[in-house]
Every structure is written in structure tokens, then in C-alpha cells.
Specification:
332 residues; alpha/beta; 8 strands; 48% helix; globular
């Protein structure tokens, strides 16, 4: 028997599709603001502030901001940043599929706008006491999913009436994700023909983070194995690499740049590249891989380079993601 008064509105449940973030515009000023926030997170760069902040503000940002702003400008869509556009489409698609007035679906960015805290405030004002935060990171890393978890704790530290949160740690191992990704690749090959190889390029990470217990590399390698199994019937060799190396520290290997060179030199002249660590296309996929990666591969003797897009807001993926979300909403 319900103890809820008929005069008391039924609490709604918030669902937040959370992604990394993006500058508000492809300009030097906007990119500078974004990089300061992103690269000041101690989960992202673990160097002590007294050493890192002067380097970040005095060297790194002044040296890189114009190039980064230019790179953003090359991929910017009429509606805005691809990462934001596709994340918004994802949220709308999930809301349509849930089709339940008791759920409020919104988006948030870990860095930039809309911030997690502002979205939590908005959902709380709409009557949500329970919030499912769905990070758009298939694999767990302290610098991605971990820092979202940090923000949930920081939010509850500052409010008297705390929210009840749920957050998946990872979802790469769920069959909904692997099967949808494998089907996307198979469909792409049915339309465009098969390559000589498929490179899975994941975002990189400093080796020290792995040595200190971060499970990210294990998650990436497990994703690679699951996709190998799911695509076995295609008889196309799969390779693995890590992109986006930054700074002078040693990063996990092989790097994507080195792997592209190696494959071209070994005679894999027709290559497709997929980025299974990214839920939607962004600077790291559209500029770093589809543009710069292709140029590098062809400079090394490669003949055909094709980037297979992320799942983005594909209908099959929205169906699968909704099923994953529904699993985490059980008993709420």
C-alpha cells in the first residue's frame, strides 16, 4: 500500500546524458576558457597545482590555443560543436523511446556548459530526487567516468537535501553496445566494401596512471577482444592503438600515429579506423583521426583511409542505449 499522499506530486526521476564537454565556440577565447577548466582537473593532469598551473597558463594554453581553435573550426557544424549536437540528439532520442512522463531526460557536460551542477539544480527544482547519470564513456578511466563521480559527491556535499544518484561505471561489455557497434561496422562494409584491416583507436593515457591501478587499458583491450569476436565472420584483421598523446610523460602503447605508419609499411594499404572509446564524434575523432590521421597514413604510403563514424544518434544505438538505461532504472 502506498504511503504517498494523493496531494503530494509523484517524484520524477532525472536521467542525465553526460559527456566530456566542448568550447562554446571555435574561438581562441572560448577554447582558452574550456582548456583551463579541463586541464585543471587533477584527475586529468595529476601534476601538483603549484607546478602545473604556471605551465598550463603560461606555456601550454598560449602555445596551443590558436591551433586547437583552428582544429575546432574545421569540424564545427552549423548547429554547433559535434559533441554537443550529437549528445543533445542522443538525449532527445532516449526521451522519445522511454516515453514516460515520470522521467526527465537532460544533458550535461563535465567541463563547460551545461554543467553537471546546474543540471542537477534544474532537475531538483522539477521534483527529481533520484538521478541516473549516464556517462558517455564506454570504458572506465579515473580521468573520465571517475571525475564525473567526483562531481556527484561534490554536489551532494553542498546541498542539504541530497539527491540519490546512480551511475554506470562502464558499459563496453554490455551486448547492446558491442552488437550495435559490430553491426554498424558490418553495415558500413556492406555498403563500401571491406578494407585490409580495421584499426581500433582509443584515447590514450599516461602509463603511470595504469601502473597505479587505473583499469582503462584493460577495458580497452577487452573491448578489442569482444569486437574481434563479434566481427569474426567478416575475416578482417583488427588492430589496436591509443591516440591523443599529450606532454612528455610516457603513454600507453602503441600510439595511433606509430601504428598507422607501421601498418602502411607492412602493406596494409586500405585501412578503416573506428574509435570505440568515443560515444559521439568530436575533435579527437573528426580532426585527429579522420583528417590528420588520414593525412599521416597516406604520407606513409597508405592508399585508402576511411574513418567509420561513432554511433552518435543512430537509431539502433538509441534503441540499445535506452535498454541499458532501463536496466539501471529498475526498482526505482
Amino acid at each position: 500500500m502506498s504511503t504517498q499522499s494523493p496531494l503530494t506530486p509523484k517524484p520524477k526521476i532525472g536521467i542525465v546524458i553526460c559527456n566530456l564537454g566542448t568550447p562554446q565556440a571555435p574561438t581562441v577565447a572560448a577554447v582558452s576558457t574550456y582548456l583551463k577548466e579541463f586541464l585543471s582537473d587533477k584527475r586529468v593532469v595529476e601534476t601538483p597545482d603549484w607546478l602545473w598551473q604556471p605551465i598550463l597558463r603560461g606555456i601550454v594554453i598560449p602555445k596551443r590555443v590558436k591551433t586547437v581553435a583552428h582544429n575546432y573550426a574545421t569540424i564545427w557544424l552549423p548547429e554547433g560543436a559535434p559533441l554537443l549536437v550529437y549528445t543533445e540528439k542522443t538525449a532527445r532520442g532516449v526521451a522519445q523511446r522511454l516515453n514516460n512522463p515520470d522521467y526527465i531526460v537532460d544533458i550535461a557536460m563535465r567541463y563547460g556548459e551545461p554543467s553537471l551542477h546546474s543540471v542537477f539544480d534544474k532537475l531538483a527544482a522539477q521534483g527529481c530526487e533520484k538521478i541516473l547519470v549516464m556517462p558517455m564513456y564506454p570504458q572506465y578511466a579515473a580521468a573520465t567516468t571517475g571525475t564525473v563521480g567526483d562531481e556527484l559527491c561534490r554536489y551532494n556535499l553542498k546541498v542539504r537535501n541530497q539527491l540519490e544518484f546512480r551511475m554506470p561505471k562502464r558499459y563496453f561489455q554490455r551486448p547492446e553496445y558491442i552488437q550495435t557497434l559490430a553491426q554498424q561496422v558490418s553495415t558500413y562494409w556492406q555498403t563500401h566494401g571491406k578494407p585490409q584491416g580495421l584499426l581500433l583507436s582509443f584515447h590514450g593515457m599516461p602509463k603511470q596512471s595504469i601502473d597505479e591501478g587505473d583499469p582503462y587499458q584493460d577495458d580497452c583491450e577487452a573491448t578489442y577482444t569482444l569486437l574481434q569476436e563479434a566481427l569474426f565472420k567478416e575475416q578482417v584483421p583488427l588492430y589496436l592503438s591509443y591516440q591523443s598523446q599529450f606532454g612528455k610523460a610516457e603513454w600507453i602503447k602503441p600510439s595511433t600515429v606509430d601504428k598507422l605508419s607501421q601498418l602502411a609499411q607492412q602493406g596494409v594499404l586500405k585501412l578503416d579506423v573506428l574509435c570505440p572509446g568515443f560515444s559521439v564524434d568530436c575533435l579527437e575523432t573528426l580532426e585527429e583521426i579522420a583528417i590528420s590521421g588520414q593525412a599521416h597514413f597516406k604520407q606513409q604510403g597508405g592508399q585508402q583511409f576511411r574513418y567509420i563514424p561513432c554511433l552518435n544518434a543512430d537509431d539502433a544505438w538509441l534503441d540499445a542505449l535506452t535498454r541499458i538505461i532501463q536496466a539501471y532504472l529498475q526498482d526505482w
